[in-house]
Design brief:
2 copies of one chain form a homodimer. Chain A is mainly α and 198 residues long. Chain A folds into 2 domains: 50 residues, Homeodomain-like (Arc Repressor Mutant, subunit A, Orthogonal Bundle); 119 residues, Orthogonal Bundle (Tetracycline Repressor, domain 2), CATH 1.10.357.10. In chain A, 64% of the residues lie in helices and 0% in strands. Chain A contains 9 helices and no strands. In chain A, α2 crosses α3, α5 packs across α8 and α7 packs antiparallel against α8. Chain A is elongated, with a radius of gyration of 19 Å. The interface between A and B is large, with 46 and 46 residues. Chain B binds a DNA duplex (30 and 30 nucleotides) through α3.
DNA sequence: CCAGTAATGTTAGTGACTAACATTATGTTC
DNA sequence: GAACATAATGTTAGTCACTAACATTACTGG
């Protein structure tokens, strides 16, 4: 073995994690466009080909959102008597609440990076599209009309993503969790938009 | 001149239009990924370099949404006394209503193509992002809170885009205009989601 | 120790996109 | 109508993301 890894774990998961870590470090240090996949591979001590075995695209090394099934499940768990959009809203709220609030800088750095680059933003939106599909599926199974479910999911995810990117653009003292909860509150059905909620 | 164009217009706008037309034809005929920029250029009788002079990316030849200023203007024109989200909703409704209903197949073909390809969808979302910026700008200038404006814009555009892609996925006898109006109606503040509006 | 499989490497290629520079068309001015 | 500026296009060479086919090394169980 040419390179004995510092943290000795020869399995694939470790290589993947190492690649992601080095990729993020390089992205943050010198920018996404200025970082080549060859550099990332070299920084991880593997060949370029190995990078593409673990990540289908360069962007995917900066993106991961494995929350889709969780969200869909929590949307499905909402009271079917509620209006469709409200079910989506509460499902997203529950999904966020069920996760630990990540206060470390790594999460923030990643969101700032992603929010600031078109191709990375596109990745988030594509992810949202998958989430939307799952939410719609969950809602339609409980009898919701297809279009209504889709519009509700699209609107809630759109509002939430806007708040996420806004948070990345400039800190205003609020945590990410507070920001997203506020955004979801703004989308409550009774809330005509008066913005009374604070 | 080596090639005398069939439709004799030597200016740049004509070349651009011709490139876009040939690109769309090829995309629809053999798929977006299967079409190379060299093919498009050849089909238009120009060099590959000329293609990139008029379109920064291959995707951009399939996308054009010049409605941003119109939308922002119509959002700004709404009654400032209305809730923020309602102003966005009505602005979008007005923007759509002010356009002629395009019933020709070319529009539908283009939307179906775009809705069916991740990279093209990403282009639409990126476009939405620009639109969102303009809407937020318009709203903030009338005193709306930044986050509320952003969430309202993101939510309305998200719901509208979901309806657009849904329309492309399968026709249900309704026109695009009807579909989008229905989607916007579903996002009305008073509408809890009962879907009573038809 | 040997076989099978997991993980990685190498090489060669395609295709989007860029940069630098050369060339042709067009319209204007004298 | 010849000189000239400018708009439009072409050529060449290159970078980089990503793929396919195939070879090679490490690890694991019998």
């Amino acid at each position: 073995m040419l390179v004995t890894n510092i943290m000795f774990m020869g399995n694939a998961a470790a290589t993947r994690a190492l690649l992601r870590e080095r990729a993020m470090a390089l992205f943050l240090e010198q920018g996404f466009d200025e970082t080549t996949t060859a550099q990332i591979a070299a920084a991880a001590g593997v060949s370029q080909m190995t990078f593409f075995r673990y990540f289908p695209t360069k962007e995917s090394a900066a993106l991961d959102d494995p929350y889709d099934p969780l969200i869909a499940g929590l949307v499905a768990a909402q009271d079917p008597a509620l209006p469709v959009r409200e079910r989506v809203r509460r499902g997203l709220l529950a999904a966020w609440s069920s996760l630990p609030e990540p206060e470390d800088n790594a999460v923030r750095d990643r969101i700032v990076l992603v929010a600031g680059h078109p191709r990375l933003r596109a990745g988030v939106w594509e992810n949202n599209h998958r989430t939307e599909e799952l939410i719609v599926e969950a809602l339609v199974q409980t009898g919701a009309p297809d279009l209504e479910a889709r519009v509700a999911a699209g609107a809630c995810l759109g509002g939430l993503t806007a708040a996420l990117f806004d948070w990345a653009a400039g800190p205003d003292g609020h945590s990410l969790g507070e920001r997203l909860r506020t955004a979801l509150a703004l989308m409550a059905p009774a809330d005509g938009g008066g913005g009374a909620r604070q």
